[in-house]
Amino acid sequence: MAGNIYGSRSFGPADPTALNSSTATAIAAIRPNRYGALVQNTDSSITVYVGNTGVTSSTGTPIVAGGSLYFPTFAALYAISASGTPSVTVTEFFS
Length: 95
Known about the structure:
The chain is an all-beta fold. 0% of the residues lie in helices and 45% in strands. It has strands spanning 2-3, 9-11, 17-18, 25-28, 34-41, 48-51, 61-63, 68-71, 77-81, 87-94. The model is unreliable at 1-7 (pLDDT under 50).
């Protein structure tokens, strides 16, 4: 654990989590003391989609290959891929 310039603490990034295109995969559990999570798509060519437990490629927030996106939430996050088996990493930020 290390403090950042704002005095909060963070963990991560965690080991990569493999996704698939048929079932949403949990990538971050609900954590009431988390104020956000940075999700990074580590794949070089496949887009992933992040959302709630029923996320699909039609309803999720897309993260392009190699991209990342910050989600200011303590809610659980799930992800699914457009195709194949890309991976994501998640860095969580806590107060």
